[in-house]
Model the fold of this input.
Amino acid sequence: MKSKMMNKLSEWLTDEASALEREMEASQERAADEDEAALTPAEIRWAQEEKEEEERIARRLNEWTDETGTKISRTLYSILCLVICLTLIVLLLYTVTELPSFGSPDHPINNEVSARYIEKGLQETGAVNIVTGMILDYRAFDTLGESSVLFTAAMVVLFLLRKDKESHKYSPLAKVMHDNPHSDTYYEPKNDIILQKTAFVLVPIVLLTGVYVVLNGHLSPGGGFSGGAIMGAGLILYVIAFGFAKMRRFFTYKTYQFVVLIALLTYACSKCYSFFTGANHIPSVIPLGTPGAILSSGLILVLNICVGFVVTCTMYCFYAVFRKGEL
Amino acid sequence: MAIDMAYQILLGFALLVLTALAIACLVRCIMGPGISDRVLSINVIGTLTVIMVSLTVVLLKEGYLADIALVYAMISFLAVIVLSKVYTGIYYERKHEEELQAARKTRNGEEDGE
Amino acid sequence: MMEWIRFALTAAFVLAGLVVCAIGVYGIFRFDYAVNRMHAAAVVDTMGISLCMVGFAISAPDLFSAMKIVLVIVFWWLSSPVASHMLARLEITTNEKRGENMNIHEMTLAQERLSRASEAEIEAEIKAELAGEPEKQDGEEEQA
Done:
């Protein structure tokens, strides 16, 4: 039943697409015919004159840019740099002098919110590290937004820079890259034995450090974002040493999608549960545990792991897409 | 406490010296004639920064800052590797481009001569 | 009294490390070519960092952080030679005037040439260009 429906759907889609293509071709042919048919001798002369005019303008523009344009733009660029930097420096220094002195009792950050976090944070969230308790419990919605922003950034970079088999037909930049297939990744030294032996030792250490930082996020400084960045650095080191072909054995575009979507969904679901229980004044069934133990502080550990996965995949995705154009 | 005062003087002096050395390396990084001179001085700046971060472990008596030193060491190592690899690739790419241009020019010249 | 002995040891190690670091940075300015400068940078990377770190580990607040500081030294000693290796590779490939300033064994250059896996292909491409063939063959090979 399902497969039949799918077949029908795909047939319908292909029909639609081919119909569109036919229509486009027909319209193009029509346009070409009209162009050739409707030209009178006067129109041909006008077209020639227009073309000559355009060429003359283009030549003058080229001469101008060659002689004075670069000079003017370079001077303008340095003057603008200087002016903008100086303005920013003066503004920031002025703002710094207006700030209240560090640690004074009448500082605006000393209000009831921070007092509440400091006094009741450990009791309410169970996290020894107050910062993690704050960003993943009191303000977990913010952090969901931050992870989604990372995901969106990675998606946009993929949209803009990812190369596939068809992209050289649509984008002029991709066409240039397709005609000259040897970018700098093609020439860089590969299979450096010294680097490979070192990476063989170092990549597990780096990844383990990242895991330690992620899992200890509620006990010591660190957490999902910094630990994820370290794990992403480990993956990048692996790619540099062993090449993209070996990386694709276990990390492809599909893995990326799967991991990131599962992590974001888990985050959203667990936070929905907390919001539901909190808004209806129902006690949560997840125990907070003893502060200081590794399995404590309720959902914070899960959320940290989710954020860590998202950041790891995003780091690696940025590197691979900017370097090679594909995951 | 006299001992705390002594630690602060020693470590403050060390921090000043390390900062001066890092700024000197930055000068070499800007001056450096070749690309490898620049990457080299960035490597030395990374080393000095790792020393500075470990110094704050003693200065502030906070053990967790050693984690940050470890992480900084990893990232600095990665930066040097990536930079040298990328610039080697770019150098070869440019050279290949120039060779192709020269080949094209000689070919055009031959055709003109004929 | 114990505290003061620790402080004295730390001071001795850290000051020695600072002197070594200063010598290394002076060497970066003193020497003329990048490969010579790498000698000076290696002084900072090995002796300077280890002396300073041993000094900090002696007066670290607890044993665990002292171990972590020692781990930083071990990590740096593992990774710094590899970074220097990549840097030297970059230097001998990108320096056009390498024959004037340094003697490189022919084997090294031969290996460097071998590691350009694409060398033969590039030469074929240039030959094709000289013969007047367009570059299309290469693209077809890529697709196949």
Summary: Chain A touches chain B at residues 182-189, 195, 206, 209, 213, 220-222, 226, 230, 233, 236-237, 240 (CB under 8 Å).
